[in-house]
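Sharing a chain and its predicted structure for anyone who wants a worked example. Both blocks are below, sequence first, tokens second.
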Amino acid sequence: MTTLIESAEHKSLREAVAAFAQTHPHTTNAEDGKRLWQEAAKLGYIGVNLPEAYGGGGAGITELSLVLEELGAAGNPLLMMIVSPAICGTVIARFGTEEQKRAWLPSLADGTRLMAFGITEPDAGSNSHRITTTARRDPATGDWILTGRKVFVSGVDIADATLIVGRTEDARTGRLKPCLFIVPRDAPGFERRPIDMELNAVERQFELTLDDVRLPADALVGDEDAGLLQLFAGLNPERVMTAAFGIGMGRYALSRAVGYARERTVWKTPIGAHQAIAHPLAQAHIDLELARLMMQKAAHLYDAGDDVGAGEAANMAKYAAGEACVRAVDQAVHTLGGNGLTREFGLARLITASRVARIAPVSREMILNYVSHQTLGLPKSY
């Protein structure tokens, strides 16, 4: 029942975050975004999922996704919440050394530092098995040397380090295996180039080049032989949080449309009285609520330690939320008509932004592949 009925603590958290979010107008620049991040962190919202022993709230992805959803519902979805505390913080908390935990978790929790996450490559796309960024050891010093490229990495310019997914060679088999490395932003050979996006977002996207980036031995996070386990420990929260991102955005668009439909009067009647307007908005609300239920299920499974069950549910939640978000934004814009495309109402920018929930971090088609193979047991086409 925990996934169906929120606890009193969760209701209180939701109300507190919603009240906080309402006091902040939509962030339109990096400075506003930084201020919002820091103020949210001071209230314990950014690090709510990180261990108490390292300055976090000691809760889980369930609570963190709730925070992101409510921020999004107020018009301020903080994209880096998906990356810094959810992916990087989770991976370091679960698999990092004591030194890595002490070095990173308190500052990730209190908002004084950020960490980006680099996995996508120009030629690999959704196939993480084709990642070509490689890490090799220097036998003389024990250092790691990383070489490769990454694309569509969010917030590298504001992050103090990037958690990079590279591949090392298994000495026994000669095969490459994924591993995770903390790369400081000022590491020699670590270069970034902004990607020119037609996306109205505070967070920028970057292409990264790693040209023989030398890292100390302790830059490796976790066990060199457990790369996939560690990788998916971060990717499941990423999908849950992307669902929260989409649900929050969809709720924001829907609330603007409902408010407009109540007030906008044509032929003596508010347009919201007409079923052609009311029913699509009701359907959008239902879709968002259904997506939230699956998101909550996925978050609870993950927090309970069921990585396999969480993987299936997180993929479904991300799919459902992406579809619901796009439909809610589209219907909101349509409800406002020409006003939906004006800067005044702030919905047109969401037309592009809502597509992110469908595309990233994995496309809806790859999720359908996952469900057809893993859940339904159908054969692969690739």
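Comments welcome. The beta strands are 115-118, 134-137, 144-154, 161-169, 176-184, 190-194, 205-215, 220-221, 265-266, 269-270.
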